[in-house]
Design brief:
alpha/beta, Rossmann fold, UDP-galactose 4-epimerase, domain 1, 2 domains, 7-stranded parallel sheet, two-stranded parallel ribbon, 12 helices, binds NADP nicotinamide-adenine-dinucleotide phosphate
Length: about 300
């Protein structure tokens, strides 16, 4: 892979992805929608302005990328707007797939989905063979993935779908649901019973794993992305409590419902013992952050309380 085209490069994950592509010495171009790319990224990127809905894909044909990384998601702020966004996103993804199908040597499409697509399965081991049963935000957003999943199964073009677990790092849910809470209340939250399983991957590892899948995957397949065995939400909160000397506080799910929305409370009830069937591809992969415990231990105490 020498050339990559990035969709969603200004987003939380897309930003880490561009950094990783630069680190791997891959030439990057990107579609910029509303938000500009980070300063350091912009300097070394060939950018196109537009939206996924009406971008002229033919404009890439003179210098086709080897891989298109698709981390662009049209989002909404409540159920109604999420469903509207997903309908538009579905049409835009159909347009992208149709264009790719016209090419003689189409680039590989690596599409970012999420593990919420599997639904909640308690303690049961879940790998990529599990059929979708989307919950929480993916109840609404999964519609947009359908054309990509269809083309993955049809085999007409090269497609790989990645399903990351909970992605942590600067700007993630960790900030919104843990750090902010801890700073305000001086307690570590446990949402609901806390017995649900969560698997984790740092955003820089998620990006590196996407590049690894593009390089080392061989077929049209789905790849679950995580770097360590799943742990219970309570065990995760205990790690934070031990590292900060803050006490735990049980926060009922109805509070998340009122404060945010039902999709958020469902995400914190969601239990997934995420596994993979692709052991061989990960044998040569070394994560930057092998465990969330080490990442928490490395954080300064002040990060939590100020
Ligand atoms: N964050 C997580 O913890 C997590 C976990 C698992 C899976 N995922 C998946 O990872 C993917 C990316 O998530 P994220 O957290 O990085 O999302 P994000 O921060 O909301 O980024 C979304 C990106 O999509 C772009 N975008 C939105 N509408 C567009 C349009 N019409 N045309 C072109 N680009 C458009 C945005 O650009 P503008 O800002 O310019 O609109 C932004 O760059 C999603 O599919 C998500 O389901 C995320």
């Amino acid at each position: 892979m020498n050339k990559a085209f990035v969709l969603g490069g200004s987003g939380f994950l897309g930003n880490y992805l561009i950094e990783e592509l630069h680190r791997a010495d891959i030439k990057v171009s990107a579609l910029v929608h509303k938000t500009t790319l980070k300063q350091n990224s912009r300097q070394r990127i060939n950018t196109f302005n537009g939206t996924l809905s009406d971008f002229d894909w033919h404009s890439l044909e003179n210098d086709l990328p080897d891989v298109i990384f698709h981390s662009a998601r049209m989002g909404g702020h409540d159920k109604k707007t999420r469903i509207q966004a997903a309908t538009q996103n579905k049409q835009a993804n159909e347009r992208l797939v149709s264009w790719l199908e016209t090419l003689q040597n189409p680039p590989l499409l690596v599409f970012v989905s999420g593990s919420l697509v599997y639904g909640s399965h308690g303690m049961q081991r879940i790998d990529e063979t599990q059929p979708p049963c989307p919950i929480s935000f993916q109840r609404d957003y999964f519609e947009a993935e359908k054309p990509i999943l269809k083309s993955l199964h049809s085999g007409k073009i090269p497609v790989r779908i990645v399903r990351p677990s909970w992605i942590y790092g600067h700007g993630s849910w960790f900030q919104a649901f843990y750090l902010n809470y801890m700073k305000k209340k001086h307690k570590v939250p446990v949402y609901g019973k806390g017995d649900n399983l969560m698997a984790f991957v740092h955003a820089s590892d998620c990006a590196a794993m996407m590049v690894h899948v593009a390089r080392h995957g061989t077929k049209n397949e789905v790849f679950n992305l995580f770097t360590e065995p799943a742990m219970t939400q309570r065990a995760f909160s205990n790690l934070l409590a031990e590292n900060t000397n803050l006490p735990l506080r049980h926060v009922p799910l109805w509070w998340l419902n009122l404060r945010f929305d039902r999709a958020v409370s469902e995400a914190f009830r969601f239990s997934l013992n995420l596994h993979t069937q692709h052991h061989s591809i990960w044998k040569q992969f070394s994560p930057y952050h092998p465990s969330i415990e080490l990442w928490i231990l490395k954080k300064n105490k002040e990060d939590y309380t100020q």
